[in-house]
Every structure is written in structure tokens, then in C-alpha cells.
From TrEMBL:
Ranges for domain Cytochrome c: 36-123
Organism: Nitrospira defluvii
Keywords (A to Z) from UniProt: Heme, Iron, Metal-binding, Signal
UniProt protein name: Cytochrome c domain-containing protein
SUPFAM superfamilies: Cytochrome c
């Protein structure tokens, strides 16, 4: 049997403290990173949504004039008072008989949430 000296015990205590400290650290990044990322959202928006909804979200994108059903103007009360869930549902499933189709297959859930976060940011900005 090896004899324990004070320095052994000190080293042991240090090791225990280290393990305890590591256990107290926040757990690694969860699978779905939340809050949504507006920088990524901006890229998604500019690539897929801007053509109809416009750079500022006013519903005045370059393709808007040609549409029978005008794109939503996100600055309207009617639009921005809706909950995230409701707007995400629209982005996910689209609106029947309108040019707003479902983005389910084309964008991941994270990308849809990021795009909405960017829309929320646009709405906070004036003209
Ligand atoms: C082809 C044109 C078009 C494109 C592209 C488009 N939208 Fe739309 N969007 C519309 C139209 C039209 C509506 C319906 C407006 C209405 O019902 O009055 C709409 C409605 C919405 C609504 C619902 C607003 C509300 O008040 O309920 C959201 C949210 C939305 N779009 C997000 C997006 C996002 C995010 C993208 C890109 C991933 C996108 N749209 C791309 C045309 C488009």
C-alpha cells in the first residue's frame, strides 16, 4: 500500500475540485440553436423573400407589382401583431391561392426561424 502524504491529498482535492468545476459548466450547445440568427436570416430573406416582400419588408419587392395578391407588408399592424408561431406556420405551409407558397421543403426549420427574426428586425426599422 502506498503511503499518502499531504501533497497526495492536496493533488486529490485539486482533482475533485476540477471535476466539480467542469460539471458546473453550461452543457454544450443544444441541437437547435436558439435564439435565431439574424445574420443568417438576412441571407435567407435576401435570397428567397426580398423579391416579393421588398428589402425593407414593406411588400414592395421587384416582383410585387406583377402579383395579383400583394405580398404582406410586415410593417402593417395586421401582420406584425401576429405571433411568431402564426407567422412561422405561414412560412412553413404557405397561403392557399396566393403566391406565398410553402417553404417547408426548401428551408430548414432553423432557416425559417432565422428569416422571421430578420423580418422582426426590419419591422423595428423605419423607412
Ligand atoms: C412570390 C412572392 C413571395 C415570396 C417569394 C415570398 N412571399 Fe411571403 N407572402 C407573399 C404573399 C402574396 C403573401 C400573402 C399576403 C396576404 O395574404 O395578404 C405573403 C405572406 C407572408 C407572411 C404572412 C404575413 C401575415 O401577415 O400573415 C409571411 C410571414 C411571409 N410571407 C414570409 C415570407 C418569407 C419568410 C419568405 C421567404 C422565405 C417569403 N414570404 C417569400 C408573397 C411572397
Amino acid at each position: 500500500m502506498p503511503r499518502f502524504t499531504t501533497s497526495h491529498i492536496r493533488a486529490l482535492l485539486l482533482a475533485v475540485a476540477l471535476v466539480a468545476a467542469l460539471a458546473a459548466l453550461p452543457s454544450p450547445t443544444p441541437a437547435q440553436d436558439f435564439p435565431p440568427d439574424v445574420v443568417r436570416g438576412k441571407a435567407v430573406y435576401q435570397r428567397h423573400c426580398l423579391s416579393c416582400h421588398g428589402a425593407g419588408g414593406w411588400g414592395d419587392g421587384p416582383d410585387a407589382a406583377a402579383l395579383r395578391v400583394p405580398p404582406a407588408n410586415f410593417h402593417r399592424f395586421k401582420s406584425f401583431l401576429k405571433s411568431d408561431e402564426e407567422l412561422l406556420r405561414t412560412i412553413e405551409h404557405g397561403i392557399v391561392f396566393s403566391p406565398m407558397h410553402s417553404w417547408q421543403g426548401q428551408l430548414s426549420e432553423t432557416e425559417r426561424q432565422d428569416a422571421l427574426a430578420y423580418i422582426r428586425l426590419l419591422v423595428q426599422q423605419g423607412r
